[in-house]
Structure formats: structure tokens, C-alpha cells
Design a protein that fits this description.
Elements lengths: L6 H5 L15 H13 L11 E3 L4 H9 L6 E3 L2
Parallel strand pairs: 1-2
Length: about 80
């Protein structure tokens, strides 16, 4: 992929460029906020879980994730 920017327009006005891989998270800031949102009923954590699996199903879960059948599996004991 390529990104072309007019450098003077972006950086000449005090802009900046920051890369991020899979988003950006500062746990000390973000986790308490996410917990509060969940407790208020404004963040449905169950919507982020495709399936729950046991320890013995981990290999199959990775295969399903690789094939695009599931997004996120949560391991339960």
C-alpha cells in the first residue's frame, strides 16, 4: 500500500503522523473506561464473542478463525 501526503500542508500546520497496528490502547486509561461502559449497559461485550470453547477445542477454533468462520473464540474452563 502507498500513502501520499502533501508534506507542507500536513506538517507545516503542526500536523503529525502516527502509525498504529490493530488500534491503540493505553490499559491504565482505557480499561477502566471500558468497564464503566459495560457496567452502564452501553458496551455489549457478548457481541464481540463468536463462540466459547473448551481447552480441547483450541486447534479447531484456530482453524475456523483462519477460514473466516469465526471472529473471536473465548476459552472457558
Amino acid at each position: 500500500m502507498k500513502l501520499e501526503l502533501p508534506l507542507l500542508d500536513v506538517f507545516g500546520r503542526g500536523g503529525s503522523l502516527k502509525s498504529s497496528w490493530y488500534g491503540d490502547c493505553l490499559p491504565s486509561r482505557d480499561f477502566p473506561m471500558l468497564v464503566d461502559l459495560h457496567q452502564q449497559g452501553r458496551l455489549d461485550l457478548a457481541a464481540f464473542v463468536t463462540e466459547t470453547i473448551g481447552l480441547g477445542d483450541i486447534e479447531q477454533a484456530f482453524a475456523r478463525m483462519h477460514d473466516g468462520d469465526v471472529l473471536r473464540s473465548v476459552v472457558v474452563f
